Amino acid sequence: MLDAPARLAGTAGGAAWTRKDLLDTDSLSREEIELVLETARSMKEVRSRPVAKVPTLRGVTVATLFYEQSTRTRASFEVAAKSLGADVVNLTASGSSVEKGESLIDTVRTLEAIGTDVIVMRHFRSGAPYLAARHTGASIINGGDGTHAHPTQALLDLFTMVNHLGSVEGRRVVIVGDILHSRVARSNAWTLLRLGAEVTLCGPATLLPRWFVPEVPGGGRCTVTTDFDRAIEGADVVMALRMQKERQQRGLIPSLREYIAGYQVNAQRLGRAAPGALLMHPGPMNEGVELSPDVAHGAQSRIEEQVANGVAVRMALLYLIAARSRA
Amino acid sequence: MNDILLVRGGRVLDPAAGLDAVLDVLVANGVVAAIGPGLEAAGARVLDAGGCIVAPGFVDLHAHLREPGFEQKGTIATETEAALRGGFTTVCAMPNTRPAPDCGPVLESIVDLVRRHARVRVFPIGCVTRERAGKELAELAELAAGGVVAFSDDGSPVADPRLMRNALALAEALGLPLSEHCDTPEMHTSGAMNEGAVSERLGLSGQPAAAEATAVARNIELAAATGARLHIAHVTTARAVELVAEAKARGLPVTCEVTPSHLFLTEAAVAGDGPEPAYDTNAKINPPLRTEADRRALLRGLEAGVIDAIATDHAPHAVEDKLVEFEDAAFGISCFESAAGTVFTLAARGELRIERAIAALTSGPAACFGLAERAPGVGRLEPGVSRDVVVIDPAAEWVVDPAGWVSKGKNTPLGGRRLTGAVRAVIIDGTLRWEREGASV
Asked: Where does Zn(2+) 2 bind (chain B) (predicted)?
């Protein structure tokens, strides 16, 4: 029996969490997303207490298994797990048995055998968490896989938007940058469309998906465009993505200079969005590339808030998943 | 010892010989002795083929037997036994072995392995370039003298157009076709699947259809310039089929093949049919499974005769080659034991005429590589000449269970699928070599 904090009902509109794993946002129902948001609100309240810690997940072991470097996602999960009283084991691919050639399946089975309940996994290969989830009884939370999905980032972004906008239904969200290689863009698009937002994916032609038109029954609309100045017009949310410098070397963009000219969010462009539009970035940010410094730290920036909300959302997910496995 | 066999009352179907009637086939003294109604032979073993199709043994232009060098994936013995059970009596072996047959002595050692272990007739294909590395030409004349039926660096397209032109010119002089894996790898990095809606959803690197079409177009022009016989291995895109049709209309000696996998499946197989993506590494094949529009274009191309042959691209792998992250998994599908089932399922669904399917499994491939010149009667039912016969039950329903396969490769995306049409018996060199357990024949 979990020692749940007050207001942690674990249901929203009658929905209950039944998933062993959280691998993507494509397959999440509207009810499941709303359940995460509702639970995250309770967790945010916990985080606001003088002693921001509850013993809810005492006896639960959470492992972070990162095959790719990360600061914020890993730290965020670690703080989230510890805030709920879980034990945390951190593993990285470098300096571990993975470097000696151990397969992913063997690694997750080993973690399960030593009593790990939840594995938070980041991997440079798309789909790796699915492989892991099929071969372990432990729950897998996808902390980002290749260019595929980053569901916890999308849920914390959504939580941040909902906190300001009340709802994203009918709201216009523009995601700008290297959409093609962005797991954040994919997961955000699915989540936002599921909740009825209008999503515009914008970037240079070589960094845009050509066929990505997600079909979400009863969901919002998705537009793909190269014209950022038009796309940002009247937007309620502008989300810029990290532009990797290697894209220039690979011939995908002529130069960062040209990218900045066409796609950097600056004060002038942000002025064309809806009044008070939210400016977001999943980090880490190349200041001066995706965002001009003045807007990155300006009044409309929600970037630090995203990071703070990340802990609450990840607490919610750990709680929901661990509670299911103990039920 | 040769059996005397009387295959009675089957639908004898050999489009090349103009045969399509319920007849008997008498097999004696190692050959198809007679075909006709009401045949009798004293002391003959009678196989009741009522309701079955009786056709020439299947001919495969494109298989990977893995030996020498990759015996953990398959051996000549295991994979030719799988071929036999799939109805294939003649198999052309691709040269991606270790060592690769890029000179006479290596070829000789492989021919010797085949002689000792093969369960069906095997023709070797020689390399185009040394170690299939695409840098220097292999010893093509020596390979031709050693008995190769074609040249190919399969799996590794010959990227350098100058080298390809020279290879085609030499192949033409030797009277042999060059079978090319048409891809432009420079257009993608590690393209793990088709570039399109599914790859974008799954975040996987994609191979664009244009990478195939670009290479097909280039190689057709080089074939035209040299007069060589160009065989395009495993076409997968609608545009490639159009380009081959155009080449044939120009009178160029260009042929091509399609795999049962590309006729039967699409890129959707990678994602699986559940609510969460499967990232099914068993559906990872090079060239990749394409779109439904491409699949339909391949079926049309096959029906129209633009595509000459169905070739398996049988590619067995060890379990550990596939039980990894999708982009790290090996390319290839183990196909011998499901090929006939998938092709006849397409026929049962009305997507492919059975007569066309038989032609593409027999006389079509034999003609591409001129195999009847090497083994008379291959791909045909010619009394007094042909030696191989396959009996197929087109209505038999069965569920694919790779665990029961004799191939070392259990890597198929078809596991658990219900197919219609099964091989019941196989005769090679006039001898009944395999009969399906519980078969009515």
From this structure: 154, 181, 234
